[in-house]
Amino acid sequence: MKNSINVRIQGHPLKLVEIEGSHTVQNVYDSLDVHLGQCYSFLVTANQKPKDYYFVVSTRFTKNVLSTTATIRYEGGNGPASSALPEAPVGWAWSLNQFRSFRWNLTASAARPNPQGSYHYGRINITRTIKLVNSIGTADGKLRYAVNGVSHKDPETPLKLAEFFGVAEKVFIYDTTGDEPPAKTSDKITVAPIVLNATFRNFVEIIFENHEKSVQSWHLAGYSFFAVAIEPGRWTPDKRKNYNLLDAISRNTIHVYQKSWAAIMTTLDNAGMWSLRSLTLERQYLGQQLYISVLSPEHSLRDEYDLPDNTPLCGIVKGLPMPKPYTT
């Protein structure tokens, strides 16, 4: 719910095979850092002496380290292999280097001769760059978390209903955060619905810049994206030369180390209203989230379903006649 963790098994290497639905190059690690909302699959070979081995999970990047253990017991085992727990790595540079070692397996998981790596995302022209900076501050004397100085608040009328009924301008304003953060940072925060107006099938680059001292984690609903880079410092366009444009993992969460930035790339080819949110729950609840509106200009059932007839209506759309259905 809050912290990154490190996972390790005493005396056993971990062979990574999958990250969030994507088969990976099967590198072997002594331990794995797992950040908020992330999912990893690894294989372990039980080829050690028949004893008891510790399975250890401990927090990372926290002042006080919290840890817990389980026991892997071999059949016929005769006591613990060692009473000393395997130590966790130290520092975030180790974790960053591990992220850089993750690679998409370009020869797995699809019909030949078109394996999963046949989608050459690195050759697609970027049509829009969105830079998002997380921050903490106050609004009306209360704690809020923000993106580019704006803290999201759900309106009385759900965002997608407002779009379906053609009354979005009465509920929210598109692009309140802009594609760039404010030039000057401030702890003064604006509270409003955050909806980015995106173009259907555009190929976008999203930069997450973290100026704080804690690790952030973000999830994009409705899409997988290519996590092409994480680096310390501030992002500038010339940093693109450091992107992995060949075999970055296709996934749906990305972490951002303290005082660092992360870059993702994706094609907005799934029409709808999609949530981009912090996975730190108090940050998400207090406004560190936004929505990306992706509308098909053809209003076709090929791209998006109609609003179901039995959808409960509320807010300003309650009592209005149903909108014209999409065409086939």
UniProtKB/TrEMBL annotation:
Signal peptide: none
Name of protein: Uncharacterized protein
GO MF term (any one): copper ion binding
Plastocyanin-like domain sequence ranges: 2-76, 185-298
InterPro entries reported for this sequence: Cu-oxidase_2nd (IPR001117), Cu-oxidase_C (IPR011706), Cu-oxidase_fam (IPR045087), Cupredoxin (IPR008972)
The family this protein is said to belong to: Belongs to the multicopper oxidase family.
Keywords: Glycoprotein
Entry superkingdom: Eukaryota
